[in-house]
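ok trying again, last paste got cut off:
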Amino acid sequence: MCGRYASARKREKLLQEFEIGYDGTSEELAADYNVAPTKKVYAVLTRPHEDDKDKDNKDKKEKPEPTRQLRVLKWGLVPSWAKDPSVGSRMINARVETLAEKPSYRRAFAQRRCLLPADGYYEWYKIDKKTKQPYFIHPADGAVMAMAGLYEFWKDPSRADDDPDKWLVTCTVITTTAEDQLGRIHDRMPMIITPDKWEDWLDPGLTDLDRVRSLLDDSSAQRGLAAYPVSSDVNNVRNNGPHLLEPESEEESLFRISGG
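nice, full thing came through this time. structure:
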């Protein structure tokens, strides 16, 4: 699974790296070195927005063109049909193998896909029955990690229609099988989308599930990743700061996942 990650890039940097056409964020998120479920996170998605058209076009009721946007979402997907938003805390990950079958994810998989920017993610290696060693796994070249995600809208029936908090927008991280050396740490990892596939992955007009699945049938994104042990301080969600990314021991050898 993917239950923690680091996201310290500034908003301006993400706007550039993902070639964002519209900044839909209402706030600048602080650098977070211990992103945990239910927190606010940056997400890249493509959908229409009203600012795409001037007033004259709006009056003609022309549909705005889809635009790549940066948004702030809540981690933990709440399906539109959920009775209670608390279900989101249990839906932080979606297994790639069952996306098209699970009622909670299949509609979003077809039309509401996103990218969740990260510097890397944490995973825990089980040393013995009582001990787990956290590792930080990240692109060896320092590039942004674009984790595949889904997002969904949930309407709060207890709020008035003009309440800005009427709609809750949430997301989940898609996970896949970890191969080779990564699989030695943990058998699951976030699905990573390479830049050449960003446009198709985000395209809301691409609803053919076979074509969408083909974007995920690629293990090359696992190549070029590096992993090293870090302090168990990351285990506590209250701990935060760049010190969480420091290697726990200089004697521990780092490894890089090489291509095959």
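cool. The first helix runs from residue 11 to 17. The radius of gyration is 19 Å.
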